[in-house]
Amino acid sequence: MSHMKTLERLPPLNGLKIFEAVARHQSMVAAAAELHLTHGAVSRQIKQLERHLNVALFVRRNRGIFLTHEGDTLRAACVSVFAQIADVVAQIKPDQRVRPLVISCEPTIAMRWLIARLPKFQARHPEVLLHLFTAGGKVQFAEQGVDVAIRRNDFDLSGLYVEHLAYEKIGPVCAPVLWQRHLAVENMPRLHTASRPRAWLGWLLGHGGWVEPSAGELSFEHFYLTLQAAGAGLGAAIASQYMAEQDVRDGRLMAPFGFVEDGSAYCAVSAMPFDEDPRKILFLNWLREEFELSGLM
């Protein structure tokens, strides 16, 4: 018999899948719940399958359903064939536990916040392998094989799956020795970063500070360089609480005015729904826990 003739004799495979669930549970209600279908949809599929085979697969009595001899024979065949298919799929499908979860993270977040915390994630979820690389701005998900990106929401994220992590909190930071010398950030050289060029202006306007340029202003390409310069006593920088918290705790930096929300937020971004990959959910929940702990500073 030709391959096409064999396929023509087969009933719809979706009907067989539904039949197997009903046979296993001996309940259409339980099968419907497992398959996320309505009871009516399951009942229609079973009736269509019985019409296709021209045989009764279940007998219905005392408000219950029971397999006929023919139904039990088909059930055994379905279990065997589905198990074989599952084995083949497992052999050819890339193992999600082996393939690393690829994380794209802005350089400052990676160096000043994320990397120091990753051992905690690995200890909790040793089965999840991570591959981290740094990049900022728009994410090339397909080209770079990125699963999850960690970004601030300061660019267009439309068309992507975005999960909120934490609101950004900012404030001036400086070396303690510099504060003792000037006692006012307005008198200190201001340190700027190309990635947040209006940070000082926004903070000064919001706090009634002097907005004219200060003596000895310096500008740096990356945010983390600005924080390093502040720690070295070169001036005062507008910093993220999350990025500066360890230096503040260690006494290398001080935040004389604390930190306030600036309207932006950190988020986890993906090209595909997070719930399609359990590893993404684990990583997302862990990120939220860590940001919440940081926010208690």
Automatic annotation (TrEMBL):
The keyword Transferase does not apply. GO terms for molecular function: DNA-binding transcription factor activity; sequence-specific DNA binding. Signal peptide: none annotated. Residues 11-68 form the HTH lysR-type domain. Gene3D superfamilies: Periplasmic binding protein-like II, Winged helix-like DNA-binding domain superfamily/Winged helix DNA-binding domain. Keywords: DNA-binding, Transcription, Transcription regulation. GO terms for biological process: DNA-templated transcription. Belongs to the LysR transcriptional regulatory family. This is HTH-type transcriptional regulator TrpI. The lineage of its organism: Bacteria, Pseudomonadati, Pseudomonadota, Betaproteobacteria, Burkholderiales.
